[in-house]
Amino acid sequence: EVGQTVASCLTGFGAYSEYICAPESEMTPVPPGLDPAEAVCLVANYVVAYQVLHRAAQVAPGERVLIHGAAGGIGTALLQLGQLAELEMYGTASTAKQELVANLGATPIDYKKEDFVERILSLTGDGVDVVCDSIGGSYVRRSYKTLRPGGRLVVFGGVAFAAEGILNMLWGNLILRPILNLIPDRRAALTYVRGDSKKNSSPEWVREDLSKLFDLLAQKKIEPILTRMPLAEAARAHELIGNASVKGKIVLMCNTA
């Protein structure tokens, strides 16, 4: 209704603006009293994290989970939701972000200084049950090696595009992943379509999951890690993201000096 605070995942461009036009059917009401900056973190990052864990991997309490990019926007969401799901978590991150990962309940692994495959096998003995891989590319095969029998690799991102190029990313994400499923070793490699693009085929999933997440935020069971910046500094925000110098999420604020 008019004047109500709502949230939506856009499938295209235009979110860096003060006003947008979107179908009412794609709106999810935001409960009164929530911080808008914290609420907007849930719309993409936490919806993706929730669906990776609960719809794609279908995690169970006590399972071991490896999370790549654990200090980023989706990574920190995965860690917080993983704590609520009572998971045993391991997270890759750079040295400067190790403390954050540890504070969110995971064992940090410095991917720049150690081989995460060897480290996981050393820590666990036989590997993990789930890998949440937002990197893709060459990480797909290496992530798969960390799985124990019955484990699930969920590939849901393409960060490797910037470092490895489009061909390597496509090889890992689209070609190698289905080939791995032909290996009769009781391990599975899945592709998760991000929540914002999944919306058109399953809009009820996004609204249902986002509503659950808003309830968790209202109950203070989750707390988005974020940095607020003026909308006018959008270019600078992208520089920070590109340099991997951001912990959690950057939120662009309208009507700020």
Automatic annotation (TrEMBL):
Keyword Phosphoprotein listed: no
SMART domains from the UniProt entry: PKS_ER
Gene3D superfamilies the UniProt entry points to: Medium-chain alcohol dehydrogenases, catalytic domain, NAD(P)-binding Rossmann-like Domain
Record keywords: Membrane, NADP, Oxidoreductase, Transmembrane, Transmembrane helix
InterPro entries linked to this entry: ER (IPR020843), GroES-like_sf (IPR011032), NAD(P)-bd_dom_sf (IPR036291)
Entry keyword annotation includes Oxidoreductase: yes
GO molecular function, one term: oxidoreductase activity, acting on NAD(P)H
Membrane spanning residue stretches: 151-171
Xref: Pfam families: ADH_zinc_N_2
Annotated coiled-coil segments of the chain: none
Name this polypeptide is given: Enoyl reductase (ER) domain-containing protein
